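re: ur question from yesterday

yeah so i grabbed the chain u mentioned. its 153 aa long if i counted rite. heres the sequnce exactly as i have it in my notes:
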Amino acid sequence: MYCDNSGIDGGSGVPNIEPDGPCDPGHFCPAGSSGPADNDCPIGTYSNLTNLTHSEECFDCTVGHYCPSAAMTTPTECDPGDFQNLTGTSACTECHEGYYCPTSGLVDELPCGVGYFSGPGATICTPCTQGYYCPSNTTNTSSLIQCDAGLYC
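ran it thru and got these structure tokens back, copy pasting raw so excuse formatting
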């Protein structure tokens, strides 16, 4: 709860005799707060609740999501090509070479599999290039193996 800094109850001309209202979602109001949005939930957190009194009551951003700014009321899903397996983060992690992230909100990146490769941030894996082979479950663009002389791929 907060009391506005005018000392007047809700602009009515009557001195404050009770709080003016709850803190806004995405914010917290410690004792002595004078506005509903004076104290933001920190970056990496969010809250869709009212009446928080401490920043510790804000929720850590959930896996598969990120919270890039203060005062967020809902976490943002990671985009395709990214993932996030940690809580309380302000950014997602780009999928690594040899993996792909086909949908939004992924918690873990997926290996491409034998016969396929990918670069960073991939949303799909590419079949191994003609004349090369991809023996690893997580082949990246720099680890394609050229077929030896006398063999074809």
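noticed a couple things. The chain has no helices and 13 strands. also The CA atoms of residues 30 and 53 lie 5 Å apart.
anyway ttyl
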